[in-house]
Amino acid sequence: MLGIDRNAARATWTVALVLLALALIYLARTTLFVFVLALLFAYLLSPLVNLLDRILPARTGRTPALALAYILVVAAVVFAGMHIGSLVAEQAASLAKDFPHRLAQWERPSPGAPAAVNDLKQQLIGRAREQIAAHSGTLMAFVPAAGLKAVAVAGNLIHVVIVPILAFFFLKDGRAIRQQLLGLVDDPRRRELADDLIADIHLLLAQYMRALVILSLAAFTVYSVFFLAIGVPYPVLLAALGGVLEFIPMLGPLVSTVLIVAVAWVSGGNVLAVLLIMVAYRMVTDYVLSPYFMGSGVELHPLAVLFGVFAGAEIAGIPGAFLSVPVLALARVVWVRVRKARTAACTAS
Q1: Cβ atoms within 10 Å, residue 248
Q2: Residue 163 lies in a domain
Q3: Domain span at residue 193?
Q4: Looking at the domain assignment, is residue 224 inside a domain?
Q5: Model pTM?
Q6: How many distinct structural domains can be found in the chain?
Q7: pLDDT > 70: what percent of the chain?
Q8: For 197-251, what is each residue's pLDDT tens digit?
């Protein structure tokens, strides 16, 4: 009667609801990120919990396996912190103390190097010193703000406690949560599609988290052994840096390579040997380890991965870069599964 088309009004209302949902997701992005971290942490512990659940008596339920898994993980973290963490902290303090002296030594002209190389070294270090001098006032003004940020970071340490607690509930009630989600779908075909989607996502996240941890530990182990063998300064610190940056796809290994080679160069290490080791390990990782542990779920073109990493970093910083690959992989899994379901439905009809 008022000249309003019912279909147009329904479409407008749907768009409004979608925009409202996106706005709510943006406002609650910090909380959602904590829950995502808890979910990924649950997938990280899931193989250990399943193993302990098979070993322990069946009548005890899943809770004892969860408790024992948490005890083992905490013990491993404490052991690593006491042994490896102390070495990393010691070598980091030594690097911070010796770096100005090492930089001054590196700044001196090399007798056997061409004049152009020595001039380039002088220009690079001169530019660096100019930038430091020009922004020293800004850095000093930033100190009070950094103190306030440190207080905020200390307040966010509560997430270290919340994430394992949320992961505990995901592990304990994961099957019940899955059944509740499926219960929201009434249509049998759509319920079957939702069940297949949940199964694909479960397999994808499990493979992805397992691969990240294995690749990170492998990078730390390989770098530690070879850096110690060839006498690279600060070997455990550099190996830990390479292992941690493995969690950021493609961009992280590139950044770690540049930083490790730069520190080895300034510190007087065997730069050629370090570069050869890292390039060889990168080739083994990209063509052997990563495809094997990632499985067939994360089938993304390198350009898509790079786009996701840069876009995620621009949108949400380091968390966005970390979550970019699983988000793109999830979108691909949903698209493939929905397309197969539509094809099957068209064939059946």
Answers
A1: 21
A2: no
A3: 185-349
A4: yes
A5: 0.72
A6: 1
A7: 78
A8: 888 888 888 888 888 888 899 999 999 999 999 888 888 888 998 998 888 877 7
As a whole-number percent, the residues of the chain with pLDDT over 90 amount to: 4
Hey, CA dihedral for 239, 240, 243, 244, is it positive or negative?
negative
Residue with tokens 């009809």: 349
- Please answer whether residues 298 and 204 qualify as being in contact, where contact means their C-beta atoms are separated by less than 8 angstroms: yes
Residue 133: inside a domain, yes or no?
no
- Tokens encoding 219: 């990078």
pLDDT at 23: 86
18 and 43 Cβ atoms separated by less than 8 Å: no
Q: Which residue has the tokens 């930083």?
A: 259
User: What six digits make up the tokens of 146?
Assistant: 């950094």
- Contact, 207 vs 295, CB < 8 A? yes
Report the SS3 class of residue 131. helix
d(CA 7, CA 18): 17
The one-character DSSP state at 81 is I
Residue 331 forms part of a structural domain: yes
Q: What angle do CA 291, 295, 298 make, to 5 degrees?
A: 85
